[in-house]
Amino acid sequence: MKRFFSLILCLALAINIAGCSSKPEKTDDKDLYVIGFSQVGAESDWRIANTKSMTETFTEEKGYELRMENARQMQDNQFAAVRTFILEGVDCIIIAPTVEDGWETVLKEVQDAGIPVIIMDRSVSVDDKDLYLTNIGSDFLEQGNMAVSWLEKETADKPANESVRILHLQGTYGATAQLLRTKALEVAVAKHSDWEFAAQLYGDFTEAKAYEVVTDYLKTDRNIDVIYSENDNMTYGAMRALDDAGITYGENGQVKIISFDATKRALQYCLDGQINLCVECNPLHGPKVEDLITKYRNGETIPKHVYVEETAFTSADLTQEFVDSREY
Ligand code: GZL
Questions:
Q1: Taking the chain (328 residues) in consecutive chunks of 10 residues, what is each chunk's mean pLDDT?
Q2: Which of 31, 86, 166, 271 has its CA at 20 to 30 Å from residue 133's CA atom?
Q3: Is 28 within a domain?
Q4: Ligand 1: residue whose CA is nearest its atom 2
Q5: Ligand 1 pocket by C-beta < 6 Å: which residues?
Q6: Does residue 50 belong to any structural domain of this protein?
Q7: 227 CA distance to ligand 1 middle (Å)
Q8: Which atom of ligand 1 is nearest to the CA of 96?
Q9: 246 alpha carbon to ligand 1 midpoint, in Å?
Q10: Number of structural domains the chain divides into
Q11: Cβ neighbours of residue 113 under 8 Å, at least 6 residues apart?
Q12: What residues are paired with 164 via a beta bridge?
């Protein structure tokens, strides 16, 4: 008799294991498509607009449940959020990575759980590209090259013996936006013998940090011709520091300002002649991400990298009506 019950127990165990997938059961009772979204943080106007685009796209009315975790710009918080999404058995994971490195282990865990991953905005640096479905974001190197091309034109007529001294404000070290916007400028400085870095300062994509480091820098050197700021919020911090130091900037000032993101506030400064060039970085990824997820759910092939279209603006390219019409 004992052998009979042991046999039944083994059979029951075997059936249970066979029926059990590697993906935990989804903790949801409304049959919604559950998305786990690990967002960088709320460090900039761009990020706020990006989050808004995602929350306005993935609504319950449209059949989604969006579970967003704000990482406060710390990668470890993203790892924890992604592991929670795995345990919750979400249908899809979207990651806006803080930095490129360090993602192999957690992305392998997601792959083992059978959950598709979309990398949005910045990129991840992994050898195995099968660890994610697609990477949708900007061509940050092209953004930097647009800024460099503009500066080349702006400085073409200066006296040959005059240098172009550039104060470079860098975003979060290791973020794709920082790496490639920096690369474009460093290649250009190496190419132009009359261009030089006054300094390269760490602004972490925030207004407060940029204000702090530029204020400190201007105490020892006021001889700068250009500020190349890797996002608008750092630009605002630099503008405040220049104001405090009594240094003029913009179209009729001592310092030309190049800023990335082209958010509404920056475009207004550009229209008003206080920022010379705004390089666009489109945060409205929500609808494009939804389109990619739909294609995936329909079994369609999706490209490994999807770039969004972007341009650059000077005051000559802007009208008040255009600035007022901007979504972010
Ligand atoms: C760019 C994005 C950057 C923005 C910053 O796609 O990753 O991060 O340029 C934001 O404003 O902090």
A1: 54 44 63 97 96 98 98 98 98 98 98 98 97 97 98 93 96 98 98 97 98 98 98 98 98 97 98 98 96 97 92 98 95
A2: 31
A3: no
A4: 177
A5: 43-44, 46-47, 121-122, 138, 175, 177, 205, 231, 260-261, 281
A6: yes
A7: 17
A8: 7
A9: 29
A10: 2
A11: 22, 23, 24, 86, 89
A12: 195
Q: Map tokens 């989804």 to a residue.
A: 26
* 39 CA to centre of ligand 1 in angstroms: 12
The model carries a pTM of 0.90
**Same-domain pairing of 164 and 266:** yes
Which residues, other chains included, contact 56 with Cβ-Cβ below 8 Å and sequence gap of 6+? 286
Does residue 150 sit in the same domain as residue 200?
A: yes
Domain hosting 127: range is 33-138+283-297
- In this structure, are residues 286 and 58 in contact, taking their beta carbons and an 8 Å threshold? yes
Residue type, 299: G
Please give the structure tokens belonging to residue 278: 């705004």
Residue of 281, 288, 289, 308 to mutate, ligand 1, most atoms within 8 A of C-beta: 281
205 and 60 belong to one structural domain: no
Question: How confident is the model over 243-263, as pLDDT tens digits?
Answer: 999 999 999 999 999 999 999
Atom from ligand 1 closest to the CA of residue 122:
7
Atom of ligand 1 nearest to the CA of 175: 7
